[in-house]
Automatic annotation (TrEMBL):
GO biological process, one term: neuropeptide signaling pathway
The species this protein was found in: Aromia moschata
Highest taxon above the source species: Eukaryota
UniProt cross-references to Pfam families, sorted A to Z: Eclosion
Name of the protein in its database record: Eclosion hormone
Keyword terms, alphabetized: Signal
GO function terms (MF aspect): ecdysis-triggering hormone activity
Length: 79
């Protein structure tokens, strides 16, 4: 029989490990950044185009909403 503290530690360690694996996925990070930029720039940011680029380039290019060079391909004029 496991003590309650040990059970809590096992659950915590498992969740921490799973969280690390999810965050380490570069495509996931890329898509989350696209979503964040879409929230920040609204109709001026092409979120779908950004997400498509994440998949196409397998997360090798990560958009940074504060770095104009990294998001320039996804910005558009709003008429």
């Amino acid at each position: 029989m496991m003590c309650p503290m040990r059970s809590i530690l096992v659950v915590f360690f498992t969740l921490a490990t799973l969280s690390f694996l999810v965050e380490a996925n570069p495509i996931g990070v890329c898509i989350r950044n696209c979503a964040q930029c879409k929230k920040m720039f609204g109709p001026y940011f092409e979120g779908q185009l950004c997400a498509d680029a994440c998949v196409k380039f397998k997360g090798k290019i990560i958009p940074d909403c504060e770095d104009i060079a990294s998001i320039a391909p996804f910005l558009s004029k709003f008429d």
